[in-house]
Design brief:
heterodimer; A: about 850 residues; alpha/beta; FAD/NAD(P)-binding domain; Enolase-like, domain 1; 7 domains; B: about 120 residues; mainly beta; Rieske Iron-sulfur Protein; three-stranded antiparallel β-sheet; about 0% helix; globular; binds siroheme; binds flavin-adenine dinucleotide; binds iron/sulfur cluster; binds FE2/S2 (inorganic) cluster
């Protein structure tokens, strides 16, 4: 064995133990990690455990798999409960009898549900709510049950109650205290929550001490309460709090807190320097943290400590926001007004069922805590005031009164250090940095910062923050497309057109600086194509194109490409269908019908593309421009030729339109559809350009969008004849091509156009700018200069030179490997690439 | 019994001709079973060479990225997920932990050469 590597044993593979493994690997430290876990499965998302009852499977909840661990070099043993720690000789022994040596030991044993010592608590249908196994047991038990009782009215108890209600049981919650969620809420908040939950059909019994669980008369059991009352039930679910799983620490003499919990210092070290404890089993400054975010911070702390870093754990905020059976509840900081001198403001609305309380310090300048029931829309704002010590407005109550616009204030004032996602330690500054490096979409920001991929609680805050940061830039920051040009796309378009610039080199020499980048190059490439419609792989233009445009195909995750021939309007002859099938078979391509009514062939290596296209072009196919920011498809319905309701020939119209605008380069992709009657089978109203047949002609809808932010198209004009329809579309599209920003779909463009739809109608229908003639001419030039890029390419030996993997060898990229799934190929995973017998042999064609 | 020993030596290897390079763009060469992406920055008449494997996208694609400059650093942007890799240091600008290997290059008599470590088997 390699002696240089630190041997790390992790006991427990809950959320925190797993996060530790990930954090440790991320440090790059040479180490050998072994995970020992008592559960039968590896880490899963306990926070979203309840979703198991709304359809999620154990696989959906899994945070990792054995395959992944193995691929990362992490050893693991499931069903392996550790029962002994030998601190002196540094090994642990598990229930299987196996021993494991460690240099560093990490206890991530979590906690277990506390079951109050009530006689009869150990019967078959008395259960707890913590693991997937528990949930399976509840499921089984509920099948033969009518009534269920949850003992404990805290946060988890209510979640459990919701679960058994979803399973169709008559549901009761029994709480010993006078109110629900006594930790997080005050009396008034607890009362409102109780009313709301009862209104949903769950019976809440407060101030009830259960004394014994006996055999029932009507049900399986009956609970006898201290006040003499009785409740019959078939199922008992204990949710009376959690206790740190500290037995190992106790048995083998690590320091424990008075009421349990493994004592740790700021380095998360226990009383033995080589043993760490993290997550719910750890006790820091006499506190247990029963949430994932603090546990994750502890995990990162230990990874840093072991790899020689200096991260420490300095406590965590325990504020919570949740939705219980559809009731919104939030609690921040000092909810119980315990800080000396603290005062509070309250707002209660019995009509709408909203309760809000603000706890402020003595001079009313700072927010100490808050309680929100029924409406948590202010939670993010308030939390930021509390966490970042932001000065409250002059009248703090404005923050909780209806119509308060507190959010605006807080977001822009947030310091860069403000914590946005505590699970992954992402601050506002990190988000700003991500945006600075070019991430402008929420999804990109999530991907590069990991924000919002833990408990998910910060999703709304993340979105508002991103929106705000982007918004402030939109207003104050210039519209420069990148560091090389101090112009917006619209301005560049104007320069190119007016100065008749035909190459990137000229443009950057005269109007920009540096060598360009992946933002300005494709933008300029697209503008040059819109204005001059040159072959896009002309030598000068080639380096401007994104890989998809360079290779006239769409790159897939493994570096192969997809091939999408144009199938205008979705109409295809049997002969052509057969060609597609034959080509796919010959080159072993995966085939699929796309969402755009055509056929996509996947898995082509770069050097195969010209061969494949040669065959397709020979058979009469043209490029489908699936790779370009250009016209994609014109979707059609079958229309009056076949359909008994159709009033016009929608297929012929769709074919006309697709053939007219194919090849048009634009700021973003453009999609059309044509429906043969108002039943709208082609979904035209969700397209950039939508055409719907009427008895008298065509209705034109504009600027619809599917995708991430769907938008219904706006009705632009009605009952148009064929000629006017084309004239309007020419003008609308060309005006869009000239004035939209980079990667702006028509939907967003219209929404940001000053004057909106009315203005667009004035420009196009009333010709208010005296421009339509020019727009139409420009479009006609594009239509007239159309060429199939693939045809041009295969006829041009120097272009073909680009389509090879290696300049100096005919070998193929050996990292591209496929396995078989549902009788077709799919890319092999990293692990599958190791198992050579599973791989499909690559045949040379 | 025969023993085989492996020695590492550094060597200039000719990869292709100068006119195989594509102005302001990339090509890929296979050297000693290693995929190397070569970029030709026309303005500076300079060739840059890095490993072709994108450590984030996990595929051999870097030569198909767009060449550019960010804060005066010459970079390629991955065609898969757009991260920038410095052609000078190999560092990924968006992810501290990701790096590609950089090779020295030169053009001699129209021949593009890359300096590379080769394994020599010594019997
Ligand atoms: C292949 C296809 C999925 C399929 O198997 O059906 C597909 C595949 C891709 N879509 Fe799509 N979209 C496909 C139909 C759609 C549709 C449905 C439609 O066109 O009716 C939509 C919603 C309609 C719309 O666009 O309004 C759609 C909305 C998107 C979006 C979101 C656009 C938006 O405005 O929100 C993206 C992302 C983007 O463009 O930035 C996207 C991006 C992509 C990309 C380019 C993502 C990427 O970079 O790899 C995929 C590559 C295509 C490829 O490799 O060939 N795809 N995509 C469909 C190809 C249609 C075709 O024949 O050309
Ligand atoms: C229904 C539910 C909802 C929740 N909702 C939220 C929420 O919205 N937000 C939030 O922040 N938190 C929430 N939590 C709490 C959150 O799940 C916990 O804080 C977190 O899972 C703790 O992680 P952990 O790794 O410390 O412990 P655990 O997840 O308990 O993992 C410990 C693991 O160690 C194993 N183990 C114990 N002893 C041994 C041993 N001797 N040998 C080997 N293995 C051992 C256990 O079997 C277990 O698998 C929720 C919890 C539940 C149950
Ligand atoms: S939109 Fe109208 S014509 Fe077209 S298929 Fe549907 S019902 Fe028939
Ligand atoms: S706070 Fe948990 S995912 Fe962001």
């Amino acid at each position: 064995m390699d002696n240089n590597k630190t041997k790390i044993i992790v006991i427990g593979n809950g959320m925190v133990g797993h996060h530790f493994v990930e954090s440790m690997l991320a440090t790059g430290e040479a180490c050998e990690i072994t995970v020992l876990c008592a559960e039968s499965r590896l880490a899963y998302d306990r926070v979203h455990l309840s979703e198991y009852f709304s359809g999620k499977t154990a696989e959906d909840l899994a945070l990792t798999t054995g395959e992944q661990y193995t691929a990362l070099g992490v050893k693991y043993v499931t069903n392996e409960k550790v029962i002994e720690i030998n601190k002196k000789q540094k090994f642990v022994t598990a229930s299987s009898g196996q021993s494991y040596i460690y240099d560093k030991l990490v206890l991530a044993t979590g906690s277990y549900p506390f079951v109050p010592p009530i006689p009869g608590n150990d019967q078959e249908h008395c259960l707890v709510y913590r693991t997937i196994d528990d949930l399976e047991a509840i499921n089984r038990s509920a099948k033969s049950a009518k009534v269920g009782v949850v003992i404990g009215g805290g946060l988890l108890g209510l979640e459990a109650a919701n679960a058994i209600k979803q399973l169709g049981l008559e549901t009761h919650v029994v709480e010993f205290a006078p109110q629900l969620m006594a930790v997080q809420l005050d009396e008034a908040g607890g009362q409102l929550l109780k009313d709301k939950i009862e209104a949903l059909g769950v019976t809440v019994h407060t101030q009830k001490a259960t004394q014994v669980i006996e055999q029932g008369d009507k049900c399986r059991y009956k609970l006898l309460f201290a006040d003499g009352s009785i409740l019959e039930t078939d199922l008992v679910l204990f949710s009376a709090g959690i206790r740190p799983q500290d037995k190992l620490a106790k048995d083998f003499n690590l320091a424990l807190g008075e009421r349990g919990g493994i004592v740790i210092n700021d380095n998360c070290q226990t009383s033995d320097d080589d043993i760490f404890a993290i997550g719910e089993c750890a006790l820091w400054q006499n506190r247990i943290f029963g949430l994932v975010a603090p546990g994750y911070t502890m995990a990162r702390t230990v990874a840093s400590q072991i790899s020689g870093g200096s991260l420490t754990f300095t406590g965590a905020d325990m504020s919570t926001k949740l939705k219980l059976m559809g009731v919104e509840v939030g609690s921040i900081g000092d909810a119980h007004v315990k800080t000396p001198g603290a005062k509070y403001y309250g707002y209660e609305n019995q009509v709408t069922g909203v309760y809000k309380k603000l706890v402020v310090n003595e001079d009313q300048k700072k927010l100490l805590g808050a309680v929100l029931v029924g409406d948590t829309s202010d939670y993010d704002t308030l939390l930021q005031y509390a966490l970042n010590d932001i000065d409250l407005p002059e009248f703090p109550e404005a923050l909780i009164l209806p119509q308060a616009s507190g959010l605006e204030v807080a977001m822009t004032e947030l310091p860069d250090s403000a914590m946005i996602c505590s699970c992954h330690n992402v601050t506002k500054g990190d988000i700003v940095a991500a945006i600075d490096t070019g991430a402008t979409e929420l999804s990109q920001i999530k991907q590069c910062t990991k924000a919002s991929s833990g408990c998910g609680g910060c999703a709304a805050l993340l979105k508002t923050t991103v929106d705000k940061v982007l918004e402030t830039r939109g207003v104050t920051v210039k519209q420069d497309i990148c560091e090389h040009f101090a112009y917006s796309r619209k301005q560049l378009f104007h320069i190119i057109q007016v100065e008749k610039i035909r190459s990137f080199a000229t443009l950057i020499a005269e109007h920009g600086k540096g060598h360009g980048c992946e933002i300005c190059k494709p933008t300029v490439g697209s503008i040059l194509a819109s204005v001059w419609n040159d072959y896009i792989l002309k030598q000068d233009h080639q380096p401007l194109q994104d890989t998809n445009d360079t290779y006239l195909a769409n790159m897939q995750k493994d570096g192969t490409y997809s091939v999408v021939p144009r199938i205008a309007a979705g109409e295809i002859t049997p002969d052509k269908l057969i060609v597609l099938g034959e080509v796919a078979k010959k080159y072993q391509l995966y085939t699929k019908i796309t969402g755009g009514q055509r056929i996509d062939l996947f898995g082509a290596r770069v050097e195969q593309l010209p061969l494949i296209w040669q065959e397709l072009v020979n058979a009469g196919f043209e490029t489908g421009h699936a790779y370009g920011k250009s016209l994609r498809t014109v979707k059609s319905c079958v229309g009056s030729t076949w359909c008994r309701y159709g009033v016009q020939d929608s297929i012929a119209k769709a074919l006309d339109l697709e053939n007219r605008y194919k090849g048009l380069r634009s700021p973003h992709k453009i999609k059309f559809a044509v429906s043969g009657c108002t039943r709208e089978c082609a979904e035209a109203q969700s397209k950039d350009i939508g055409v719907i047949a009427t008895e008298n002609g065509w209705n034109l809808y504009v600027c619809g969008n599917g995708g991430m932010k769907p938008r219904h198209g706006d009705l632009f004009a009605t009952d148009l004849d064929d000629k006017t329809l084309i004239k309007y579309i020419d003008c609308i599209l060309m005006f869009y091509v000239r004035t939209a920003e980079r990667l702006q779909r028509t939907s967003v463009w219209l929404e940001q156009l000053d004057g909106g739809l009315e203005y667009l109608k004035q420009v196009v229908i009333d010709d208010s700018l005296n421009l339509t003639h020019e727009l139409e001419n420009q479009m006609q030039d594009i239509v007239d200069s159309y060429q199939c890029e693939w045809k041009t390419t295969i006829e041009n030996p120097s272009s073909l030179k680009r389509f090879r993997q290696f300049v100096n060898s005919d070998d193929i990229d050996s990292n591209i490997q496929f396995v078989s799934e549902r009788s077709q190929i799919r890319p092999a995973t990293d692990v599958e690439k190791q198992i050579t017998t599973k791989l499909i042999p690559i045949v040379e064609v | 019994m025969k023993t085989t020993q492996t020695n590492l030596t550094t060597n200039w290897q000719t990869v292709c001709q100068q006119n195989d390079l594509v102005n302001d763009s990339g090509i890929c060469a296979l050297i000693e079973n290693q995929q190397i992406a070569l970029f030709y920055l026309k303005g500076k008449e300079q060739v840059f060479a890095i490993t072709n494997y994108d450590p984030i996208g996990r595929a051999n694609v870097l030569y198909r990225g767009i060449l550019g400059c960010i804060n005066n650093d010459i970079v390629v942007s991955s065609p898969l997920y757009k991260q920038h890799f410095s052609l000078v240091s190999g560092q990924c600008l968006q992810d501290e932990k990701s790096k590609v290997t950089v090779f020295e290059t030169r053009i001699i008599n129209q021949e593009v050469q890359v300096k590379i470590q080769v394994q020599q088997k010594v019997a």
